Write the structure tokens for this entry.
Amino acid sequence: MAEKIALVGTGVIGRSWGIVFARAGYDVAYFDAADGVVAHALGEVDKSLADLERAEMIDGAAALRARMHPASSLEEALDGVIYVQESVKEEVSIKHAVFSAMVAVAPDDAVLASSCSAIPPSKFLEVPTPHRCLIAHPINPPHLVPCVELVPSPWTDDAAMDRADEILSGAGQSSIRLTREVEGFVVNRLQAAVMTEAVSLFARGIVSAEDIDKSMRDGLGLRWSFMGPLETMDLNADAGFASYVEMYGKAITDMGQDLRVAEPWDEDVIKRIDSERRKLVPAESHAERRAWRDRRLIALARHKDSEDAG
């Protein structure tokens, strides 16, 4: 009998997590307190599984789908689990209430993780048995983007971090471990630096919204899809990272001084960017474009897998 994992909260993130765990051979229980959400989630999962099957990234959609089961209560969902992934609304009070309920019914040795993307774990994980609770923040959608941040609260013990790492790495995710909490964690802080400068460049009239996206899509993103910024710097100089810093460090730090990443986003700027985006992708085509994104990620994942295997 396969080991069991529970998903609590089955919106966009939760349903994607289900594919991650079912693909790794776990039985997956889906639970959501809101009426109709689990049924909708499993319907969307069927679409994603069909895409993965067409891309030959899974052996069979039916076999994976057979491992996914709706649960009618939290108690039913958490019965016999080894691990729980919570993905409810990003509000402190809601997450604290959900974790308080989960620790009361989960097996004593189960690890309880949150998909929280921004709230520091100390804000909501002060519950009974907090040593087994942590954040496992995915990059959306986790079944296509494997990175997951493991963030401890002040009460999380090393055994829970190790167990979460073991389960997630075994399920094909790429875990990064923080030694302590920091606002926004790691991925969002790196992403925020790029996003805020992108908005600033647009607000100052330096470049269009589409050309900002081109700079990443057809430039930096090509390298960053298989290596990070530090390795990029290391490989961009014959003698490595220190040599790169010697050549370009002052220019980079000077740009750092000039970056206007801390300024508030003006309401008019937000509206103008949104207007440009809606001209490129009308509102009625937004879901279709998101599906396109997932298919591109599937193709990229296949390419990277074949290159890594070679």
In short: The two ends are 34 Å apart (CA to CA). The longest helix spans residues 286-309. Residues 4-177 form a domain with the Rossmann fold fold (CATH 3.40.50.720).
